[in-house]
Amino acid sequence: MSDPSTGFLSQAIANAEAVERQIASFGNIPDTAQTIQSQSITLLNNTIPKIQAIQAKIQNFASLASLQLTKAESELSNNTSLDTIKFLLLQVNTEANSLKTDVDGADSITRATFSDIAELSKQLNGVESTLNSEIISLNVQLQSASQEVSAIQSKEKYYALLGILGLAGLAAAIALLVEAEKKLNSLASNMHSLSGQASQLSMISTAVKSMNADFLTLSNKLLSLKNAVDFLSSDISEVINDIDNAKGERTMAKLYILTSLREVQTLKIDAS
Q1: What is the CA radius of gyration of the chain?
Q2: Mean pLDDT across the chain, nearest whole number?
Q3: Given 36, 48, 161, 169, which is the most exposed site by the fewest CB atoms within 10 A?
Q4: Cα distances (angstroms) measured from residue 159 to each of 61, 146, 147, 175, 178
């Protein structure tokens, strides 16, 4: 029997949760990015439980439907009344149709989350672009300030060589140098801070893109499960129609039931 905690759907959920923890771990990012960070975490925390709930419903349905279809096949082989078998199949079909609605709802929510995260990813790209522009501008200022310090230091050396004659100029140069170095240090500190933010922002942007890919995978998987439930419901309807028109003949009904049973078993594996 498939372990629902180790299947493809469970792995996709685990991947999304791992990325969420990574996104939550980032600090030292611009305020706008912090807002996007919070929104992406909220989206995941609102959506993943709904996916896990529908996963559990599919597993429960598959377990019960497997028992019901196995019983229907056995009753068919034992020449039990077709009305009794039809009743079992109607139960499975009613449950399948209800499940189909639930899976469709979960898929719609997941696709909406995928679209929302894609939009947040675009917003992060804008934040990155703005920050990079600030870094470029600051770098120009930093180079200019560095050149200013170098120029003042050259003048300072010149006035020092003049001895007593250069004392006034030397004093002025020292005062200018103190201010210039203060400005340079401030710009260098800002550059260090922005560079750190840029590094963190790049990583969170990559993580959000990864989360978006995870939700696309989850949405596609839910759509696949919905289609599988659709096929199952259609096949069971065929069995019921066949029973209604069988006039005592059971061969085709048995084939349909066995096919439906295999579909249920596959559905359970796919939802694990």
Answers
A1: 34
A2: 86
A3: 161
A4: 91, 20, 19, 13, 16
Sign of CA dihedral 55, 57, 58, 60: positive
* Sign of the torsion angle spanned by Cα atoms 108, 113, 114, 119: positive
At 246-258, the pLDDT tens digits run 665 677 788 888 8
- Whole-model pTM: value is 0.80
Number of domains the chain contains = 1
Neighbours of 113 (CB within 10 A): 24
Q: Give the span between the Cα atoms of 272 and 270, in whole angstroms.
A: 6
Cα–Cα distance measured from residue 137 to residue 194, given in angstroms and rounded to the nearest whole number: 11
Inside any domain, residue 91: yes
Q: What is the pLDDT of residues 45-104, one digit of tens each?
A: 999 999 999 999 999 999 999 999 999 888 888 878 888 888 999 999 999 999 999 999
Question: What amino acid occupies position 143?
Answer: Q
User: 3-state class of 87 per DSSP?
Assistant: helix
Round to whole Å and give the CA distance between 196 and 207: 17
Exposure of 175 by Cβ count < 10 A (0-12 exposed, 13-18 middle, 19+ buried)?
Answer: exposed
260 located within any domain: yes
With CA atoms as reference, report the closest residue to 23 among 5, 11, 39, 41: 41
- Residue 33 within any structural domain of the chain: yes
Place 4 in a pLDDT band, splitting at 50, 70 and 90.
very low
Residues 6+ apart with CB under 8 A from 121: 205, 208, 209, 212
- Can you tell me the distance from the alpha carbon of 148 to that of 155, in angstroms, rounded to the nearest whole number? 11
174 versus 17: the higher-pLDDT residue is 17
110 is written with which tokens?
Answer: 């997941």
Residue 181 placed within a domain? no
Give the domain range for residue 28. 8-140+205-270
